[in-house]
Design goal:
The protein is built from four helices and five strands, in the order E-E-E-H-H-H-E-E-H. The chain is of the alpha+beta class. A hairpin with a 4-residue loop joins strand 2 and strand 3.
Length: 131
């Protein structure tokens, strides 16, 4: 039996949308067959340092607060409101929908994996955490 398919997108912080510059801040991964939706985000200290280098005017505390809401939606945490109550598939598609705000995602990419959580960790280390 082949490994299940998954979709993922990189979570980006775009301090000035008009400039289209961004900091990779995390990864969200969805595997329908396993009913898995997970995300990994940079710790606030590392994110703040990266943001200071690109956009020192940005309030990193506010960005972190919004990313925590992102995580809550991804995890289906009731504190995130009605969107968090949607199905795993609906939450992933809501998270990766195009938007013109300071938190955006890359295009959605696909792959296959027997272990979505391990794949998420690998993608995070490769695409986000690597300095």
């Amino acid at each position: 039996m082949p490994a299940p398919a998954f979709s993922y997108a990189v979570v980006r912080v775009v301090p000035r949308v008009e400039r289209e510059e961004f900091v990779n801040a995390g990864v969200s991964l969805f595997c329908a067959e396993r009913r898995y939706l997970g995300c990994r985000l940079l710790d606030p200290t590392r994110l703040a340092a990266r943001l200071r280098a690109l956009a020192p005017h940005v309030d990193a505390t506010e960005i972190v607060r919004h990313l925590e809401s992102w995580r809550a939606v991804c995890e289906g945490d009731a504190s995130a409101g009605p969107i968090a109550a949607m199905s795993v598939s609906e939450r992933f598609h809501w998270l990766v929908a195009p938007r013109s705000t300071s938190i955006q995602t890359s295009a959605v990419h696909a792959g296959i994996s027997d272990d979505p959580a391990t794949t998420l960790a690998h993608l995070f280390e490769t695409l986000v955490a690597a300095d």
